[in-house]
Amino acid sequence: MPTPTLRLASYNIQKCIGLDLRRQPRRILQVLDRIGAQIVLLQEADKRLPPRPAALPHFVLNEANWQVVDLGGAGSLGWHGNAILWKGESIQLQQQGHLTLPGLEPRGAVWAKFGTEIGSFRVVGAHLGLTGGARREQVQRLAEQTRKWTDVPTVWAGDFNDWARQPSFLSLAPEMQFLPAKPSFPALRPLASLDRIALSEGLQAAQAGVHSAQPAHIASDHLPVWADLYPS
Question: Is residue 2 part of a domain?
Fold first, then answer.
């Protein structure tokens, strides 16, 4: 009997503005549906200026039966542009919160603990800074917090904003297994593996990839990444 898996995805949706310069939230949902993920971590899910309203409106998500982790942003989809969605009666939200990340730019990470068919685990979504120094500090902060979470395994996913094949921050989180990097940016001709997924002990990936099928090639400047998770 095959081992059950859960598909998780991460997607920088660029405020739902595609490469054709059109803001089309429902096009983003088309991409999510075609990925087939049950838990999704989004970046750039809110508009840039205060009060940072949701770029992907709540009512559009409700129509498609997506549930949103409430991270306390009035009118926003998430926090610092990071959001967490899930779909399916077998998934139960147990806890949620957010973390302030160091750096000159305002950056943050969001997290949620879920009960699922493959067991309970915590997901952390982040969009790291533009400079190498800031990214290292931010990964160190995430690693420090992750070490305090000893109850369940942890998944990191998001836009790590690093063009290097072997980013310098990898050594700062030896307890996290980063899945093999695959190019996800820019969407039309992917060159850089900016979008990454990493797993702590207790979880493995049966398979992982980058989703490039239409309309993902123009829905955002990033392609989404995904992984099928199972307990180790």
Answer: no
